[in-house]
Sequence to fold (217 residues):
Amino acid sequence: MATTQRRRRRPRSNWSEADKALWRDRKQSDKATANASVHAAAQVLALKPHLIEVFQEFAARVQGHRTLRNALAMFGQRPSALRVHSAFFWAKEDRAVLPSAEPICVIARRRGGKKVEEFDNPDTGETDEINAGEWSGFTSERVFDVRDTTPKNRPCDHCGTHVGLRCPDSCPVYEPVRSPAPTLEDVVELLNQVLKDDGGFCPDGLDGDEDGGEGDE
Fold:
């Protein structure tokens, strides 16, 4: 039985050159925001190392499959975030991102080279995809906290809130999905990398005798 292949239309295939230029500018701006947030958050942790434990707990609840550097970028932009994912992920969870939501910018790897194609697999009777190409470089990605989402097509599976309305604070959808926290050594290594042009990260005060403390914000 012959295999039928068909190309998937890319979302931006009908864009004008002006649209594409705006898209590239936005991606570059988001990338700059992510990188600036990493550096700003690292500087804060260098000045107030007692906040490293706060960052470790933050990373445990938002990092997931993302890098520790991206967790630091998110920490610099939204330290109160509970669960962070892309709009595409939230759609699969049947949740819509609010139009007014402020995106959190991170860095993601991207594929290049071959175009994505679909074909009907005669062995399974299902539609499969061919290899989308090798990883090539990095790009920016926008992600959103769960508190910036609402039920999309049906009432919330957890609390029954209607489509388009915010779930109450007691809704289980807001409960963080915690992964193992990064070690202190991992965090210090990252901070040294980020702050290498500033002389690196000096971990004075990690034993709890640093200046500042409960009065610092």
Q: What stands out?
A: Residues 79 and 217 are 13 Å apart (CA to CA). DSSP finds five helices and eight strands in the chain.
